[in-house]
Specification:
The protein is α+β, with helices and mostly antiparallel strands. It folds into 2 domains: about 60 residues, no CATH class; about 180 residues, Umud Fragment, subunit A, CATH 2.10.109.10. A hairpin with a 2-residue loop joins strand 6 and strand 7.
């Protein structure tokens, strides 16, 4: 028996097998880089390496910008997409307004004539929004940067009366009256609209607001909730902020007027 030959064969097999990774049949195959030399060369390409190094700071900067935008939108100024024609005369569907969230944060309160965005749940709506929490979260995130319509419970209207005011419709000339004084709404009321076709006479409770759309014939507002708790008024603490500017489209850039009356 030629033991020397057997040892030589065994040694040869082990030395050749040890240089390659194992295949499915137990034998080792060639390395991945040797099987795909083009991929290996691409991964080691100086251009690709430089591109990867350049993309890392870009990605970090993008993340910082997104976080900053969300923080600003949450606490300072929020874009708000106008979804309907209830504020025509001042705002059009598709306008994106800038809502000042600090306007009433440090002791200030809404005044007559302000255009405000508020959460109408419990006063204008019994809904809490989309039932699917994921859908609601995504929509709220989109609305917070003005890319999606606001959630179903958010509204934009004009403040007509504040706590303690008596708001009446209407005098002999068809004008709204606040505390017995007729108010001039010619600066914002939609052309052709009357101040209200629905007569009402209400004293606004303290801490609440009487609000109406500028397009009175196409607005569901305090008048439509007279029989609801609060008599159609909105709690001041549900106000999200004051609409100060039309930010988009570019041709509509303008401040939103704040007439003072009463």
């Amino acid at each position: 028996m030629d033991t020397h030959a057997q040892l030589s064969e065994r040694d040869g097999a082990s030395s050749s097998d040890s240089s390659a990774p194992a295949g499915d049949d137990g034998r080792e195959g060639p390395s991945r880089s040797s099987r795909f030399p083009a991929l290996a060369r691409l991964a080691a390409s100086p251009r690709l390496v430089r591109t990867g190094r350049m993309l890392r700071p870009v990605g970090a900067l993008t993340a910082v910008c997104l976080v900053t935008m969300l923080l600003v939108s949450t606490f300072v100024v929020q874009p708000f997409l106008i979804p309907s024609g209830s504020m025509k005369g001042t705002l059009r569907p598709g306008d994106r307004i800038l809502v000042n969230k600090l306007a009433y944060r440090f002791g200030g309160e809404p005044r007559r004539g302000d255009v405000v965005v508020f959460d109408g749940s419990g006063s204008f709506s019994d809904e809490t929004g989309a039932s699917n929490p994921v859908t609601r979260l995504l929509r709220k995130a989109g609305a917070s940067v003005g890319l999606a319509e606001p959630v179903e419970t958010d509204f934009v209207k004009r403040v007509i009366g504040v706590g303690g005011d008596r708001v009446t419709c209407c005098d002999a000339r068809g004008r709204l009256m606040v505390n017995g004084v007729a108010i001039d709404e010619s600066g914002y009321l939609y052309p052709g609209d009357t101040p209200s076709r629905v007569p009402f006479d209400i004293v606004v409770p303290e801490g609440r607001l009487w609000v109406m759309g500028d397009h009175r014939s196409d607005s569901r507002d305090s008048r439509d909730h007279l029989g609801a708790p609060g008599g159609g008024t909105v709690p001041v603490d549900k106000v999200i902020g004051r609409a100060d500017w039309i930010g988009w489209p570019a041709g509509r850039w303008a401040s939103i007027g704040r007439p003072s009356y009463g």
